[in-house]
Amino acid sequence: MARAAALPIAIRQVTKTYGRVHALDHVDLDIRSGEFLTLLGPSGSGKTTLLMVLAGFTRPDHGSLLFGEEEVVRRPPHKRDVGMVFQNYALFPHMSVAGNVAFPLKLRGVPRADVGRRVEAALELVQLGGYGERRIDQLSGGQRQRVALARAIVFEPRILLMDEPLSALDKQLRERMQIELRRLHDRLGMTTVYVTHDQREALTMSDRIAVINGGGIMQLDQPQRLYEQPANRFVAEFIGESSFLPVERVPGGFAHAGRVLAIQSLPAAAGRHLLMIRPERLQLLGAGMGEGLNLFDGTVEEVVYQGDSILLQAVLASGARVAARAPATAGAMAAVPRAGEAVRLGLGPADTVILADA
Amino acid sequence: MGWLGRPATETQITHRARLWLYAVAVLVMAFLVLPTLIVIPMSFSASQYLEFPPREWSLRWYRSYLASPEWMQATATSLKAAFLTMLVATPLGTLAAYGLFASRIRFGRFAFALLVTPIIVPVILVGIGVFYAYVKLKLVNTLAGIVLAHSMLAVPIVLMIVTSALKSHDMSQEMVARSLGASRPRAFLLVTLPQIRFSVATSAVLAFLTSFDEVIVALFVSGGNNSTLTRSMFNALRDQIDPTIAAISTIMILVTSLLLALAQTVGQPRKRE
Hints:
By secondary structure, chain A is α+β, with helices and mostly antiparallel strands.
């Protein structure tokens, strides 16, 4: 299959209410041509509603939706030329694998000779070459997922929508498919909008992530920025683990429990703020270490062995609680303090992130 | 009798402990079926009158039925009415089931209830109502009138059977089909209908039988050259007790049983291995 010409998507002031609930509240979003964009949010956040608006199954109360230059907000789903993969795959059980994949081609009146060739090419692409004659009920979950994908891309749509397509797969297969989906996207180059509630999946696959909550976009950013510089507490809590410590403003910066913090990038906004600490960024320090770091002294409350790492809960002298994660190497295991012992934790200035407490 | 000691269920209840249940089941089935079956031996009687058991056997009443132009005409009317009722009620009921199931309109439940009322209301009331309406519409004693009235009785059956089939059908398949380029009617025809076709076929058979076996409404609105078989039988019973009725009944039992068996076997989707 050739690279399709991708289309940018512009979502303008899209609003959808169900009764009194704002499923979508004046959403503005620009999706770049050929981009892999993920809508990430908890259930009920509005991410699926937004995807349904893109697919044409949900008509917004008002707002505008552009595919390229064309207004499509009133266009029915079957005229949008959008590939879509559903959470439950929704394969047609009364058709063979090839019948499923050929379905969109036959609807488009593709000549019969081309249908066979293109179906086989699409199946090859999802590594199901030669599976055309199989019945759907003879396939495993992962294979069904691939058929659904082949069916959604076989007609070379310029936009591909995916609604939690991997959530029914087991963890190993899911992680392999994440990489595979991303490769497929890079190869075909269509604009892809991906819905998930799994933050790790979003971080793994996306060019950009839109974190959605309460029918609005909390933050739109690249994965790394989203993780390092979350816009607010909701984003910080939803993506990765984090502890929050109260801070007070001091001239030129912030302090926690009277200690001025070394901070690399200060927030511009006024108002109440919080210190966000990612557990894996906290270092367990021995006596006399910690030059150039922000130091936190406390008492170990709990140590949990988690296989790949050790999670340590501590209560600081200020009364605040923090979590720290240390890699479970043999040396670190021996050095980790036990519950009840004193501990000193260090945080680099670049990892010291101050958030608006929204 | 080793099987008596073997477990009948996974909870280790033996067949012996279940004997009382088997006996009850046989009695209930006999009670349901025997009154119907009794006409079969009666139809092969050589006597002038209905009698059981017959003292002499003969096929004379079958010959008399087949030789009678009146009976043949009534049979033709019944078959035509049943066939046309099937053709009218099956698509209408299927569309209604689909529409009410797929849409979330507020009065959907009300519409469903309204559509099934004809089989809840006593049929005699339907018959009277239809008769008065037909007098004004000049539809009494017409084939069209019979078909319309019988369709009214058959649509609820189609509606209920197809609705229950749709409940176990994954409607997101239709959404996929639409996203892949199928308009809504095409998505229904290409994706949903093929998967509920067994239920639709079953409901078609039952729609046929609804008309073919119906007598009360037919008493009111069929007559003359368009008398249905059931109506003519009713009249015959009233005027003279004649074993021809038993012969016709036997044939009707046969036809009905065959069609129901057909619906049962065709109506079951192939078991997947």
